[in-house]
Amino acid sequence: MATNTFLSSSSSTSEWNYDVILSYIEEETVNNFTSKLYTSLESANIKAFKEDAENFKRGDQISDSLMKGIKESRCAIIIFSRNYASSTRCLEELSLIMECWEKLGQRVIPVFLMGVTGSDIRRQTGSFEEPFRQLEECFDREMVKRWRSDLKIAGELCGWNLKDVPNG
């Protein structure tokens, strides 16, 4: 994985303030999947961090509070849906999560929704293919290479493949 600058060299150990952080693209959480997951985690006394949708808009950079939440979470659940790769904010979140996974031992659990598979993520195919063509035109080559590498690693991790999310 490429070296990132999100974590300072002094943060070799972390104080976990959250059990889990949820990474997702708001527009695509089928049937409020993310909200239901968050509520279920909280009901089970699992301290979860989820940035409120009002705090960011599509395309925004990740906020300081979100960066802090990622660094202070023992585990990250990445909810991959069709348009995840079209959000640079999500890709930056992913890069920080993968850096925390590598340097701090944060556990990372991918969840695949809406027909997205680990293979799509590893290879940036399917709904991940076109966004990367566009990203390569607009962003620094090294940044896109880092995002691709982080997706490849995340797609190789053991997770949950939820083909259909039940209604209600």
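That was protein one. Protein two is written in the same sequence-then-structure order:
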Amino acid sequence: MAWEISVVLLVIGFVAWAYRALHPPAPRLCGTRGGPPLVGPRIKLRDGRNLSYKEHGVPKEAAKYKVILVHGFSSSKHEASITATEMVGKLGIHFVSFDRPGYGESDPDPNRTMKSLALDIEELGHQLQLGTKFYIIGNSMGGLAVWGCLKYIPHRLAGAALIAPVVNYWWPSFPPTLATEAYNLQPVQDHWALRVARHTPWLVYWWNTQKLFTGSSAVTGIPTFTGPDLQVIAKLAGSGAAVSHKPYATQQGVHESYHRELMVGFGHRDLDPMQIENPFPHGEGSVHLWHGIDDGVVPVSLQRYIAEQLPWVQYHELPNAGHLFSFGETAAKDAILSKLLI
């Protein structure tokens, strides 16, 4: 009888452990008891969620151009380095950056998709009175949001720029051989992490928090940066401008920020950029895709293929540039802004 009780207790203990390992803790919502404090302004969205934002550049009332910025993985509304150029004042640009759902001070969205994020951005532009049309710039993982806007809210866009946008290796329009070759360039740990995000999303939390295997390189903070990226990082560190956004970005929990990002970006979702129709058939706006040849995070071969399939996208490929080129020289920022706005 004693051994039967021991077995039952062992099974109960295992089930309890498995439940805790597979189920992430509830997010610590900003402004609630025990949660992080609310500091910046927020808007209330259609479903009751709150979206936190920050304004940069010239005052909105005096601006000629209004631009929404979409941050990348492990970043936040506070990353707005593209606004640090004299061109902003000369052209009269007003920027709005925001914390994507689950990041910083924005409420999580457990039902997030590319479409829902595009609708969030549309609401942000409407509530902040950015006009009938606005420009959008997305960096890295934020580039996926730009593709979503081009598909779901093209009528609200005056133009768009994608800076080293992340790709989903399983987008149906990619030739399998090309996608496989690019996929194999990534670290082995990312092969597994991305497979988990795509095929078994219910394991994403466990996979990236357990200690038996190494999780996603983006989650662990060791992405595949190349020489040009390391130079940018060193320069930012030397100037005191290198700031980690991780503590703020993940203050409500890593699952609804980092992990949700992987599930939406690489799962079975509602987007294939190469199936998007030209949002500006009469030349009333433009779309620009910027990518560095030496990008070790997103293979340049896939960006080239996307550009070939979408002739309405103006493709800019930069030599001796990595994934972080837009954080470096002012010339790159000025080029991105001038091509998009002028």
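Confidence is low (pLDDT under 50) at residues 3-21. Keep this in mind for the problem set.
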